Amino acid sequence: MQQKTPYRGIDDFLRLALDAAAPLLLWLFYFFACYAFVAAGCASMLARMQWLGRPAISLVLTIATVAMTLLILLLLGRAAIRWHAGPRVLLSTARLGIAALALLGVIWTALPHWVMPVCIG
């Protein structure tokens, strides 16, 4: 009986690698989107707008942070389920670590707009 290999060529490898890297790719998108939104918002009228008694830019960034945190927590949960269910090989452990690192990245990216004013001047 022939044993299955973890991947069957470059197509499977690429799929597995992108699946494992998905949380970091989401964090990359979130990081870029936050800083691009702040740059555009501070240069426009959005910097002076208030929504629900808070600066509009801060409110949008908080909503984006909550959404991205929930999405990465979902991926972290999926990685934890795979880690517990299957054999503990490098890929399942890497998925777990990468998802945890991406969650830390989202929180670290969000800290400045929670503790400081977003637009100064």
Explain what you see.
By secondary structure, the chain is mainly alpha-helical. It has one domain (30-115). Helix content is 74%, strand content 3%. The chain has 3 helices and 2 strands; from the N terminus they run αββαα. It has helices at residues 10-42, 56-85, 90-115, and strands at 50-51, 54-55. Helix 1 packs antiparallel against helix 2 and helix 1 packs parallel to helix 3 (90-115). The longest helix is centred in the N-terminal third of the chain and has 33 residues, at 10-42. The mean pLDDT is 88. Keywords: Membrane, Transmembrane, Transmembrane helix. The chain crosses the membrane at residues 21-47, 59-77, 89-111.
Envelope shape? elongated
Low-confidence stretches: none
For the biggest β-sheet, the strand order reads 1-2
Briefly note the structural class of the backbone: mainly alpha
Largest sheet: 2 strands, antiparallel
The number of helical elements comes to 3
The topology string of helices and strands comes to HEEHH
Mean pLDDT: 88
Beta-strand share of residues: under 5%
Number of domains: 1
Helix content: over 70%
Work out the radius of gyration: 19 Å
| Strand elements, count | 2
How widely separated are the two ends? Answer: 71 Å
Question: Summed up, what is this model?
Answer:
This protein has 121 residues and is mostly helical. It has 3 helices and 2 strands, in the order H-E-E-H-H.
Topology:
Elements: H1 10-42, E1 50-51, E2 54-55, H2 56-85, H3 90-115
Antiparallel strand pairs: 1-2
Helix pairs in contact: 1-2, 1-3, 2-3
List the keywords.
single chain, about 120 residues, mainly alpha, two-stranded antiparallel sheet, 3 helices, 2 strands
